[in-house]
Amino acid sequence: MSWVAFGHIGMIGGHLDNVLNAAFVTSGFAAAVAFAGYGRGAVAAALLFMASALAEWPFYLLAMAVFVLALGLFAWPAVRSSTRRQDLLAPVGRLLLAVVASATFTGLTFLSRPPDGSLGLRAFGAQFRATVRERFFQRLRDNTRYYAFPLAAAGALLAGRSSVPPGHNPARRLFLSMMAAWLLVTVGASVAQIFDLPVAGARLLNYFFAVPLLTGIFLWELARILAARYRTLGVTIGALIAAAAIVGFGFLAWQGETGRKPSISPIAVREVAAAGDYATRFAPSRPLVFLLLKGDFAWRVVQASLPPEVVPRTSRFTGTLAQFEAEASSDGQGGGVGSGSGPGRPVAMVVQRYNHAGYEAALRTEGWVRVSPGVAVLSGTVPDSRLGVSPPRGNLGAPSATWIVLALVAVLSVVGGGWSAALLPPDRILRVVLSPGIGAAMITLAALAWDRVGLGFSRASVWALVAATALTGWVAAGWRRPTKPKGNSRVEEPRPAPARLGGAA
Prior knowledge:
The protein has helices at about 10-15, 15-40, 40-55, 55-80, 85-110, 125-140, 150-160, 170-195, 200-205, 210-255, 265-280, 295-305, 320-330, 355-365, 400-425, 430-450, 460-480; strands at about 290, 315-320, 345-350, 370, 375-380. It is mainly α and about 500 residues long. It has a 5-stranded mixed sheet with strand order 2-1-3-5-4, with helices on both faces. The radius of gyration is 27 Å and the shape is elongated. The two termini are about 25 Å apart.
C-alpha cells in the first residue's frame, strides 16, 4: 500500500534516485520507531539516512525536515510535564545523533564531485520554474490522489486508539508524530511551490508517503478487528479487503502510467548499441570518445546503452566537430580529448541522434567512416560485416519480471539479514521486513567505498562486493551481544475487544 495507494505515482516512471531515497527513508523511519519502542535501531536509522542522501540528497533534506519536526512533536509534552521528560527525551537525543551523523556524511560526499561535475541541482531559470509549477498543479488536480485520504484518516484514528503494550507507547507516539510532521512539511513546501519557489514540483506530492502508510495501517487494523470478532471468517474477510484495496489502487496506478512516453529515444539507443558492438569487435582495447553537443542526459544514455565492459574506456567530448578536430590536431589525434584507459589512440564516435550536425559534418570530413546507420567513427577500422543494431531491451514480461523481483528481494534480504540482526531489536518480523531495505542501503554505502579505492564494477567485482557486504553483516550479527530490549522481546499485538477500539493512548 505504501506505493499503490497514491494512484498515479510519477517517481516510479523515471526517477530511480527518488525511489531509492524513498525506500531508504521509510526504512529509516521504521528503524527510528523501533528504537523508540525497544531502545535499539538508531544506528540502523543513521545508515539508512546516509544511503538516502547518497541516492538523492535534495529529498534527503526534505526527509530530515520531516524527521526533526517529528522529534520536536514527539518531545513536546516533556516541556510541560517533568514526569514524562526522561521517557520522551532519552530517545530524541540518540535519534538526533543519527541525523547529525547522516548530515556529516552527506557533507563529506560533496568534497568529491561525481565524474560529470554535477551536484544534482538545476538552474532555476524561468522555463524550469514554469515547468515545475505546471507539473505541481497537474498533480494537485489529479483526483486519484485523494481516494486514499479518507482511509488514511481512519488509519490515523485507529493507530492512535488501538491498544498496545505500555512499553510501545513511545513508538506509537513517534510514528504518529512522523505522520503529522510529514503533513505539515508537505503543506508548507506546497505553499512555497504555489508562490513560485521551485521546491520539488509534482514529486513533492509523490513523496507524501504519510497517506499510503496510514492507509496500510487502516487495512491492518481493520483485519485485526474482524479477526477478533469473527475468528477465521474475519481473517478471510480482512485478507479479501486488503487484496481488493491493493488491486484497486494498483489498477489506478497502472492506468496513470498508460500515457507516459519514453524519455529515451529508441533510435538513440539503437545507434549507441551499434557503436558499442563496433567497439567490442573492431576496437577491443582502444579508448572511445563520443562527440556530444551539450547536456548530461545524452551522456548518461550513451553509458547505459553501451556494453558494461566498454563503459570504463569511454569518455565524451562536448563541442562541435570543428572544435574536436582542432583539439585533436593540436594534441596529435585526440590524445588529450578522451580519458579512456585502454592502450592506443582513441577512437572518436558520433551518433546522429545526439549530434546531428556533427554527424553530417563527419560524413563530409576525411578520415571519418560511417560504420552503421547513424554512427560515424574516426581513426577506426572499417567493419567487414553488419553491426548489431538491436538495442538493449528490458526483459519485462510478467514471468521474467516476477522472478527478477523475487530474486532481488531474496538477495537483498540475505545481505541485509545479518545487518538487521546486528542493528535492530530482537523482533523477527521487524528484522525480516526491514532486511531488504537495510541490505540495499549497505550495498549502496559499500559501493561508494568500493569505488573510492578503485576496485571497479565488473560483474565479478559486483558479486564480490555483495558477498563481502553480506558476510560483514553476518559477522557483526554474531559479534553483537544480545541486549535486553526496552519493551518486550517481541511486539505482542493484543487483539482488540470486539466492542471497543480504545486502549492506552
